[in-house]
Structure to design on (284 residues):
């Protein structure tokens, strides 16, 4: 596995892959790799791509400096996880390569209005501008055929799909299923912050998502069910919603068909998210 940190070397590596007729698949990450990330590497490998993974903790998507300072760093483990799961090239770009002006603000920002301003965007103003800006740069430098994201961050996936569509990036956005621990908890780099008790209570998120997936109901019934499950575990609910999976507009009780359940909650001060499909049975 090749490890690169300089933009020009990274660009020429992917140029050479394309020139040799290979398809490049990009998997953006912030490091601290776990089985959720590995599933994306494997999805890219299974499609036959030359797999480029990036590991960059993007400060522009952290509005909370403590959160950024506490973000886990496991670079040695990341290299062995990436190599073991088929990554051909791991890019660990330097902060100055990505954002030369940092810590001053970078004048250029990509902003996906609307989708960025709801749910995760309410609690984290500017977060999705940081995400869209960094992913735009990763796509421009890498020039992949496909880019892989986890459904774990369902709103992020929607923001990226919208950006790729609006700016004609000419890349296929592949969404990959959420990887969970055996007990259902969605894998996340932040799970290491949970105490034993908090981790047990955190299972309310995946339980809530699994419950509403079982049977069709109205949007209000699903919302009520989500919230009740979270509150029964003393989780501090940030939101428990049912939305259109593309526009993120909250579903109404007359809507039928496929929708998405979204939950966010604080468990012992650790902010967790989860989501999953639901079926709506609209009232006539
Ligand atoms: P992150 O390093 O947290 O920015 O995540 C990098 C990519 O891995 C994103 O596309 C995430 O959605 C994805 N990811 C993180 N956790 C999981 C998971 N449990 N299952 C599937 N994908 C995940």
């Amino acid at each position: 596995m090749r490890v690169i940190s300089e933009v020009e070397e990274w660009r020429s590596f992917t140029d050479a892959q394309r020139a040799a007729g290979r398809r490049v698949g990009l998997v953006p990450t912030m490091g601290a790799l776990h089985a959720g990330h590995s599933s994306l590497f494997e999805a890219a490998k299974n499609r036959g791509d030359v797999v480029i993974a990036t590991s960059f903790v993007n400060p522009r998507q952290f509005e909370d400096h403590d959160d950024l300072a506490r973000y886990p760093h496991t670079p040695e483990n990341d290299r062995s996880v990436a190599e073991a799961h088929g990554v051909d090239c791991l890019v660990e770009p330097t902060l100055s390569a990505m954002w030369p002006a940092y810590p001053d603000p970078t004048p250029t920002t990509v902003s996906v209005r609307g989708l960025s301003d709801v749910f995760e965007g309410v609690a984290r103003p500017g977060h999705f501008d940081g995400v869209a800006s960094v992913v735009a740069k990763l796509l421009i430098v890498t020039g992949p055929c496909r880019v892989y994201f986890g459904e774990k961050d369902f709103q992020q996936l929607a923001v990226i799909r919208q950006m790729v569509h609006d700016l004609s990036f000419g890349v296929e956005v592949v969404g990959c299923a959420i990887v969970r621990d055996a007990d259902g908890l969605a894998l996340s780099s932040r799970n290491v912050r949970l105490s034993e008790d908090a981790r047990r209570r955190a299972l309310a998120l995946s339980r809530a998502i699994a419950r509403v997936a079982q049977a069709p109901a109205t949007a209000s019934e699903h919302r009520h069910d989500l919230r009740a499950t979270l509150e029964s575990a003393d989780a501090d609910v940030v939101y428990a919603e049912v939305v259109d999976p593309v526009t993120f507009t909250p579903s109404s009780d007359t809507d039928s068909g496929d929708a998405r359940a979204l939950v966010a909650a604080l468990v012992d001060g650790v902010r967790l998210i989860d989501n999953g499909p639901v079926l709506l049975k609209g009232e006539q």
